[in-house]
Amino acid sequence: MDRFIKNYQTEFRLIIVLLCMCSFLTIYTDTFFTLNNFTNLLNNNAVNLIWAFGLLVVLIAGGIDISFAVAASVVQYIAFYVFDYFGGGNWALGFFVSFILGSMLGFINAYLIHYFKIISIVVTISTFNAFFGLLMFFTSGRYIYNLPDWWVDRIIIAERKMANGSWAELTFPVAVMFVVMFATYILINKTSTGRQLYAFGDNPEGARRSGINIALMQFIAFGWMGAMAGIAGLMQVNIVKEVVPMALYGRELEVLAAVVLGGARLGGGRGSVLGCFLGVFIVAITQNGLNLMGVTPYAFKMVIGFIILIAISTSNINFNFKILKSKEI
Amino acid sequence: MGNLFQSIRNKFGNEVLGLIVILFLVVVLFSSTNSQFLTAANFNSMSFQLPVLGLLTLAMLAPLLSAGLNLAIIYQANLCGLTLAWVLNMDGGVDASITTFIIGVGASILVGAITGLIMGVVISYIGAHPILVSLAMMIFLRGLGVFLTNGGDISGFPEFMAPIGHGFILGIPIPLIIFFLVAFVWNIVLNSTRHGFSIYMLGSNIEATDFAGVHTKRTLTLIYVFSGVICAIAGILMLTRFNSVRVGHGEALLLVTVLACFLGGVDPFGGFGRVVPVVISLIILQMIASGLNLFGASQHLSTAVWGLSLIAVMMARFIILKYKVFSSDKGG
Prior knowledge:
heterodimer, A: 329 residues, mainly alpha, disordered C terminus, B: 332 residues, two-stranded antiparallel sheet, two-stranded antiparallel ribbon, 4 strands, globular
């Protein structure tokens, strides 16, 4: 336990904050601490979490990406036409196509960042606008409803009848989220590629001199992000049962803030899957709690923004209230 | 003609020369393909649209020079506009007096400065990353604005404010005069004052600047305060231009401000960049925007064009720097 606290300080702090929030909400509202609420939280945040695990890898490798939510929309549209071409498709084809398409879009970012030495925030701001503008232009903002059945059928992986007669259910996207979480954990913690990603993020020049293929690192990080964006797009369609070009626009900043809240650092070399999960959940539970407490929805974003601002401002302060010297300014 | 080139090059450096050539090409391209381009009406509308974008770009410039970024500018401007609208509405909206207006302008500049100050303090004294701080500030300010207005817009302002957004002095639109005034002052601050010099030094190498005895933390904080003040001016101008305030007005301009700065030769790693080339690149971008508009291009297509041109500018920048297409100096 001592070792956990020492090595995972951010995660430990997040767990404490999360426990405080949960106990407060449990006492204050009678609907928070129910199985229904927890399964709903998981179901509603599966897409955000899948993105978050992709973004975590990019942040560890020292980059930043804000184009992924729009990339997910692009994948949804292209995937729809690909499935149409193959006469309907199925889940296997669905995962394959979104994984490939998503990573292609990620590779565009990686290519521009690596070969033209453009900083990642500038590249992804540009691709964000290019993707979104082109998507809206070519689709004219048209919605798609006549999707293949397999894509929109609600698959329930676990369910339980509650005392009041309602059902607590976990849906397919949650299962996919856990698989993605596990895969990301394996990638960054259990493979040498993962160690290289951390090293590259922490000190790119040092990593280059010690023989790490830095082009490969960029392509793996942004490719993984893109693939996750594609899969999240696929799952989003399964949840909402329609393809809408503006549906995901603007969600990237919330995810980015949540991942950073979870201890990943801009500038690279830090971050863990657990922290990422906790970060997304703190944002989700805040929103859920405000909702259950009957706060006006107009105030949600303000409170979340305020919490993120506080979290970022205090993340560089150590437990014994010494200000850490930050690497990047 | 050769002498003219030489003198421009000597006075402003290579970028300005290159940008003037691009400007010239853009004018030729659009005027030869569209007869409406070279008309007084078009230039009139351009000169009214440019200042808001221009002021926001100037607000983006200083953080970029210090190797940071201020993603919150649009919402800072919105919130400053809201402050002014709120003060005016306290005094009866349409019937508000000039004194109220002046108080409102003061209040909104104060709000801009305070939001900038918070970001600056967090960035410089705590050492958090500027992208994250301004991102969190952006989410917070947008939320605050939506909370205060319930997502609607506020309108109904006194008559005497209209000229600020729509009037002329000596045939020059007043917004344009305000913009050039701010740009001029900003140019002097950056080029001829101690503070401006510190900004450039800090952007190049913050450690060395700190050891050289410059109070880097104060300088860094002030950058964001100034950025906030310029946002406030932009917000007031937006209010008088649209005659209403709504959170989200001008959202799409964020990318264009970054684009204008990089097109104007600002180094994304900080330390290099000047006001004059940035102003010229603003004029180029405004011409492209108006030109596309005259062709009847959809708004989304222009979004894509902005994104793609930012990539193109950065690629061109890389190629020019790597292969030294233009001679020696880096144009700092």
